[in-house]
Design goal:
four-stranded antiparallel β-sheet; histidine kinase; 409 residues; two-component regulatory system; 11 strands; five-stranded mixed β-sheet; alpha+beta
Length: 409
């Protein structure tokens, strides 16, 4: 199984596990909230019974002390209204507002009372009670501050935990990515170092062959020299990994044409290479590294073609954004749409042999070193695939005010 598929499954498992913990936490908190609601409901009914008795025996000082004690321990806001909806009594609300308009020390706020009463009606069913002279009254109450806070606590807790997990994941991922990059850079530089000795030996052997067998003009020896030069370029590529490459102004068509001419000689004659598009557009490139990009894309295109087919490279200039589009299209197997992003991940390959690093390196070179973009533009199973590279053009275009109409001199 692809390591990224395993990683994806583990992420999914951990996400489900975290969701299970979060759900359990919410349900557990909801259990306590409902229990507290029942207790507050019981306290409210007790408050009503005591209030009724106090209204009947308002001159009983002993009962008044009991009522005051219950009030101190009661954290609920209560409003009692008459049957016509007018407010009769209240308790626990804002002390800066009063129900009695004739009290000059406080300001009566009818809007405040109406708003509080509306909240109470939404939260709980009212209870009937008797007032002085057995007057019919209706009592309302709302949740205490503690209960209200407890309702939101699980979600706040989950939010804090999620924020912590995201921060930890991003931090560990960045550290792991940096560690992996260092390993990759070290391996690349060691590969370049190991290639140095055999390449030097091969160069010496070619010179010896040319001298001993008088093969200065032999085409086979010339091709051997081309391959040795290619090995030197490859070693130079590996040595540049991890270092900031030097970008130079190049004609994109000329760079790609030079590599295609080298590559197609070493590919099956049944595969046709077509290079089209703008021949003058320029971009800032690192020659050896950009050749590597084209090589990886062409190799993937060749591997996607079973027997015979065509690989088309089209260079397009986007004048509006001052960009260069390079589309590489093959007539191969195609890629499922679900794999458009996966193909750039390390280890992804459709071949039995292969490390699955070609497109990963390609993406790194284009995006990190050339500040460009690369993606699968289009693909259809059985018909082929198009990869698009976007580079910044090194040619700056100035806007013109010329309308194309003749001017008066």
């Amino acid at each position: 199984m692809n390591p990224y598929q395993k990683k994806k499954r583990w992420k999914l498992f951990l996400l489900l596990f975290a969701g299970l913990i979060g759900t359990a936490s919410v349900f557990y908190s909801d259990f306590f909230v409902k229990k507290m609601e029942r207790e507050e409901g019981t306290q409210f009914l007790l408050w009503i019974k005591v209030a009724e008795q106090r209204m009947k025996m308002y001159d009983n000082e002993q009962l008044s002390e009991v009522f005051e004690t219950i009030k101190k321990n009661n954290k609920m806001d209560v409003i009692i209204t008459r049957t016509d909806g007018s407010i009769y009594l209240w308790d626990g609300l804002d002390t800066t507002k009063t129900l009695y308009p004739d009290n000059k020390t406080k300001q009566y706020d009818s809007v405040y009372f109406a708003r509080q009463l509306s909240k109470m009606k939404e939260q709980h069913k009212p209870a009937k009670m008797k007032g002085i002279n057995d007057e019919e009254l209706i009592a309302y109450y709302k949740d205490s501050i503690i209960l209200t806070q407890l309702r939101f606590f699980p979600y706040i807790q989950l939010g804090v935990i999620a924020l912590f997990l995201i921060t930890a994941y991003v931090g560990f991922s960045a550290a792991r990515r940096a560690e992996r990059d260092q390993e990759f850079v070290g391996m690349a530089k060691e590969t370049a170092h190991q290639l140095g000795t055999p390449i030097s030996s091969l160069m010496a052997w070619v010179e010896l062959i040319k001298t001993r067998f008088d093969a200065e003009e032999d085409p086979l020896v010339a091709e051997m020299e081309n391959d040795i030069q290619r090995l030197e370029i490859i070693a130079d590529r590996f040595s540049k990994i991890g270092s900031k490459p030097i970008l130079e102004d190049h004609v994109v068509h000329a760079v790609i044409k030079g590599f295609v001419q080298y590559f197609k000689v070493r590919t099956s004659d049944k595969i046709n290479f077509v290079l089209t598009g703008d021949t003058q557009v320029r971009a800032m490139l690192s020659g050896p590294l950009f050749d590597w990009v084209i090589e990886n894309l062409l190799k993937n295109a060749v591997n996607a073609i079973d027997n015979e087919g065509t690989i088309t490279i089209n260079i397009i200039e986007n004048l509006a954004k001052e960009e260069v589009f390079i589309d590489i299209t093959d007539t191969g197997k195609g890629i499922p749409r679900s794999k458009f992003d996966t193909v750039f991940q390390p280890g992804y390959t459709t071949r039995k042999r292969g490390w699955g690093l070609g497109l990963t390196l390609t993406k790194r070179i284009v995006e990190n070193y050339h500040r460009g973009q690369i993606f699968v533009k289009d693909s259809e199973l059985g018909k082929g695939t198009t990869f698009r590279i976007i580079l910044k053009s090194s040619i700056t275009y100035e806007p013109t005010t010329n309308t194309g109409l003749p001017s008066v001199v």
